[in-house]
């Protein structure tokens, strides 16, 4: 990438320079011992614009206030189960709001969310949950079969009561084989709150203000292609740096944007890239149950998405689909992700009417990330880190 390439991309950045400079200031000043966490960033958005849309799923739209109240209720339930700063909460829930709300609740307590791949079974799942050593595990009803595949000696008591052993909280709704409908009521959560004698609170927990940037926010698992899966830790510090690199400087989302994410919530592209970009802008995240090339453009239009996140050959799969009107009749202004090949780059932009591509390169445990902030075709951009 040359100076000329960067110069060509500067005009496109001008409207977003305030957020870029805000991010660069954060990048220069944030330290590991600072009280700066994902939960704090989320609460700042709630305070700033409580009625702004934060989550879209199926036919539901959650405002920042509505989501925060449910997050705080889950945090209250977890706190009652003995979850404290430094503990781990296992999360085995498919792509739906509860998965993300559980992560936000966990990090508000200063604990770490252990994001279990919902496709793991038997010995592999047993290995993962033993690595996490979770104080509590949140199991989606649609993941009950996965839980039952664990060896008998590894199953926890599976009830809300009891404090002498780690235990499972059943997260109902979204049963396997059904498309979840009205999810905002979360009756399972209300039931748990009632079992606590009405002491569950929707107020922000005081613990959020004490969480340090160096603490672990969540753990994601590698694919396990070279042995059993390994847990990779993401600290609040690295997440904040990702928010600057991928969100404020790269994607440059705005508060009016909706980012569509059909990628698994138990992976970094969703939690580290998509979520940080959305919270950095105070925008909205649309959750897809799973990637479907056939339904993709219908969901883009349904959610009125202005951006989406991709990985690997996702864009090639879209190219292989028959041409449809919806693939151009949308409000997309950019896409972000990694793995868009140079040979299809232009075709993707022209066929799908996509003005800007923010390609990046990063890895869970890499100290370097490259971001195509200046919109240079067929590149993964640049980095300010020596390499």
From TrEMBL:
| Keywords, sorted A to Z | ATP-binding, Ligase, Nucleotide-binding
Pfam families assigned to the protein according to its UniProt record, in alphabetical order? AMP-binding (PF00501)
Q: Name one GO molecular function term.
A: ATP binding
One GO cellular component assignment for this chain's record is: plasma membrane
Task: Tell me the ranges covered by the AMP-dependent synthetase/ligase domain, including all copies.
Answer: 42-372
Transmembrane region positions? none
Keyword ATP-binding on this protein? yes
Give the GO biological process terms. Answer: long-chain fatty acid import into cell
The protein's matches in InterPro entries, at most eight in alphabetical order, are given as:
AMP-dep_synth/lig_dom, ANL_N_sf
- Name the family the entry cites: Belongs to the ATP-dependent AMP-binding enzyme family.
PANTHER family associated with the record: FATTY ACID TRANSPORT PROTEIN 3, ISOFORM A, LONG-CHAIN FATTY ACID TRANSPORT PROTEIN
Protein name in the entry: AMP-binding protein
Q: Could you tell me which species this protein originates from?
A: Dietzia timorensis
Q: What is the lineage of its organism?
A: Bacteria, Bacillati, Actinomycetota, Actinomycetes, Mycobacteriales
